[in-house]
Amino acid sequence: MAAHLLLIDDHTLFRTGLRLIVQEHPDVGTISEAGSIAQACGLKSMGGTGDGEEVDLVLLDILMPGMSGLDGVRPLREAFPRARIVLVSASVGPDAVREARARGADGFLPKSASGDDILEAIGLVLSGQSCFPAANASAHSPAKAALTSRQLDVLRLLCTGKPNKVIARDLGLSENTVRVHVTAIFAQLGVDSRSAALLCAQRLGLVDWPSPVDPEFMSPQ
Q1: pLDDT at 91
Q2: Quick one: fold of 3-126?
Q3: Angle between the 194-203 and 149-158 helix axes, to the nearest 10 degrees?
Q4: pTM to 2 decimal places
Q5: What does DSSP say about strands 3-8 and 28-34: parallel, antiparallel, or unpaired?
Q6: What DSSP element (H or E) covers 58?
Q7: CB within 8 A of 33, min separation 6: which ones?
Q8: Three-state DSSP class for 110?
Q9: Considering only CA atoms, which of 157, 134, 187, 8 is closest in space to residue 83?
Q10: What number does CATH give the domain 143-203?
Q11: What is the distance between the alpha carbons of residues 157 and 162, in angstroms, rounded to a whole number?
């Protein structure tokens, strides 16, 4: 039976990017979303998680408004007793990982994890195993490793100020495919605009030239 996932993150953009990844897992069926712990717990009483369908896995952002992901583990356990819970964080600091274990989480994923790593983690956790970073893992995984080669191509063109239409033409892709890549790039970099993506990409060394500001740069099209 296909698993029911619940994605909890206050950033709609990141949830969208994560959904695009997790929906590719062969064991994943229904995917529900929430922007806060309270909203997630409320889905149970409102029937928002499906027709009586139990949640099998929760992917929970550690930094949430109101109640943090760490504090949210307990109420989520009460709302969804069968669910496995994996915390998702922008970093993999040892203190945060230890605290996640202490709170009873079943896994811990950095937001910079690659799509393949996320899918592998889902498989492990759904099979009943835990999934935590190794003790000697770097606190910040290289963002470049988290982006596919095609996403890097899109990012470099995006950073020159080219709109989606031109990026699609240059790379021989459809505009919709480019939009999907841009959404995934924003999610991996933890940004919500093209200008922020440019600054982040330059800071991380993904691009190393001063990009000209195209008049259409701020447009998502």
Answers
A1: 67
A2: Rossmann fold (3.40.50)
A3: 110
A4: 0.60
A5: parallel
A6: strand 57-61
A7: 6, 7, 8, 15, 19
A8: strand
A9: 8
A10: 1.10.10.10
A11: 6
pLDDT tens for each residue of 22-80: 998 999 999 999 999 999 998 875 555 554 468 999 999 998 888 889 999 999 999 99
For the sheet with 28-34, list strands across it: 28-34, 3-8, 57-61, 84-89, 107-110
Do 96 and 139 meet the contact criterion of CB atoms below 8 Å apart? no
User: What residues form DSSP beta bridges with 29?
Assistant: none
All structural domains of the chain with their residue ranges: 3-126, 143-203
Location of structure tokens 């290289």 = 142
| Rounded Cα distance, 198 and 159, in Å | 5
pLDDT in tens, 175-206: 888 988 898 888 877 778 888 888 777 777 77
- Render pLDDT for 127-179 as a digit per residue (tens, 0 to 9): 888 888 754 444 344 455 467 788 888 998 998 889 999 999 999 988 888 98
Which amino acid, residue 81?
A: P
CA distance linking residue 132 with residue 12, whole number of Å: 25
- Closest by CA position to 179, among listed 196, 201, 194: 194
Rounded-to-10 torsion of CA 194, 198, 200, 205 = 150
